[in-house]
Amino acid sequence: MRRLILITGGQRSGKSTYAEQMALRLSPTPVYLATARIWDEEFRRRVQIHQERRGPEWTNIEENKELSRHQLPGRTILIDCVTLWCTNFFFDLEGNVSRSLEAVKKEFDRFTAQDATFIFVTNEIGAGGVSENEVQRKFTDLLGWANQYIASRADEVFWMVSGIPVQIK
What we know:
The structure is a single chain. This protein is of the alpha/beta class. The chain has helices at 15-26, 41-53, 82-92, 97-111, 134-153, and strands at 3-9, 31-34, 59-62, 76-80, 117-121, 156-161, 164-167. It has five helices and seven strands. The protein has a seven-stranded mixed beta sheet, with helices on both faces.
């Protein structure tokens, strides 16, 4: 049976750790689908910390855009994260918000059509003030709309606050 969970919150709110713990409660052999592109050495270290936290029970897949290339029926799949996934579409489509959002929605629908348990991790970057940077404002709009789309299709949504999950749906 298909199940979709969204975990959202601010940076360093405990989203990924909570998502990993949830995936391990739901399956002895979960899948970790990483959407990040490595931009610099500091970011590479962040990715390594995430990788080192996971044990051999995880199947690790790196896929920065085409999640639907991976058919994983019956599996528990943690997608970390929507923010970086949307970033990849946004920059590949030259900052065009409407084209990026449409591409994200289509790929999300294709990927989640399979019978699996999906745990999506995302950020609430729009919870702060409005940026003076036009690119940042556009990306904040894109991610906010993508988060709304995913949340509207989710069976459960959790908001992470200082490491504490608060179920909001």
